[in-house]
């Protein structure tokens, strides 16, 4: 195992359709000196390399995404292909998983970028799916994202909340 450490940035952006957001994302990526970026709630239907180059440093040149559904959602994983090769291995309404392999030492792992629903029925569907995942113990697996769950009223950023939705 190498001493090399990689950094991953995960961020719920709430839309990435304006230059103001592009600047905020670029600044956060540069300030965190990260190698992989996971964004949730991009509110974008599609991405291409020209769009990626508007926002990210030139070293970020590979990506996989899930388009928005309706007026919300969408997620993307962007990485430096000089450091990793990546292949999307799974996608559903809640999650996108990319299997990464280090170009440095051939270590591999799975990165899952999660954006769970906010509605009670959606949360139940997400949790049912999540609890039934059968990931083998020997697989290196990293989960990041916005699970849209809270354990107490203190965890909420808005007043009120349904105690039946606390998980």
Question: How would you describe this protein?
Answer:
This protein is an alpha/beta fold. The chain is built from 3 helices and 8 strands; from the N terminus they run E-H-E-H-E-E-E-E-E-H-E. It has a 4-stranded mixed beta sheet with strand order 1-2-4-3, with no helix packed on it. A 4-stranded mixed beta sheet has the order 5-6-7-8, with no helix packed on it. The radius of gyration is 17 Å and the shape is globular. It starts with 7 loop residues before the first strand and ends in a 21-residue tail after the last strand.
Please write out the topology.
Layout: E1 8-12, H1 19-32, E2 36-40, H2 49-55, E3 62-66, E4 75-79, E5 84-91, E6 95-102, E7 108-115, H3 120-131, E8 141-146
Parallel strand pairs: 1-2, 7-8
Antiparallel strand pairs: 2-4, 3-4, 5-6, 6-7
Name a few traits of the molecule.
single chain, 167 residues, alpha/beta, four-stranded mixed sheet, 20% helix, globular
- Portion of residues in beta strands equals 25-35%
Beta-strand segment tally:
8
Bin the helical content.
Answer: 10-25%
Rg calc: 17 Å
What value does the average pLDDT take? 88
Task: Provide the spatial order of strands within the biggest beta sheet.
Answer: 1-2-4-3
User: What is the ordering of alpha helices and beta strands?
Assistant: EHEHEEEEEHE
Q: List segments where confidence is low: pLDDT < 50 over at least 5 consecutive residues.
A: none
**How many distinct helices?**
3
Quickly give the structural class.
alpha/beta
Shape: globular
How many angstroms does the end-to-end distance come to? Answer: 37 Å
Biggest β-sheet description: 4 strands, mixed
């Amino acid at each position: 195992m190498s001493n090399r450490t990689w950094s991953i940035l995960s961020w719920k952006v709430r839309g990435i359709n304006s230059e103001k957001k592009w600047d905020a994302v670029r600044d956060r990526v540069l300030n965190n000196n990260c190698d992989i970026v996971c964004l949730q709630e991009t509110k974008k239907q599609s991405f291409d390399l020209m769009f990626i180059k508007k926002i990210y440093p030139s070293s970020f040149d590979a990506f996989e995404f899930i388009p928005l559904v309706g007026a919300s959602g969408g997620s993307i994983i962007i990485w430096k292909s000089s450091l990793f090769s990546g292949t999307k291995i799974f996608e559903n309404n809640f999650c996108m998983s990319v299997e990464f392999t280090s170009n440095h030492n051939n270590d591999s792992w799975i990165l899952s970028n999660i954006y769970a629903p906010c509605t009670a029925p959606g949360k139940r569907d997400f949790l049912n799916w999540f609890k039934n995942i059968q990931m083998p113990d020997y697989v290196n697996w990293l989960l990041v994202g916005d699970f849209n769950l809270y354990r107490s009223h203190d965890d909420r950023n808005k007043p009120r909340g349904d105690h039946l939705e606390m998980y």
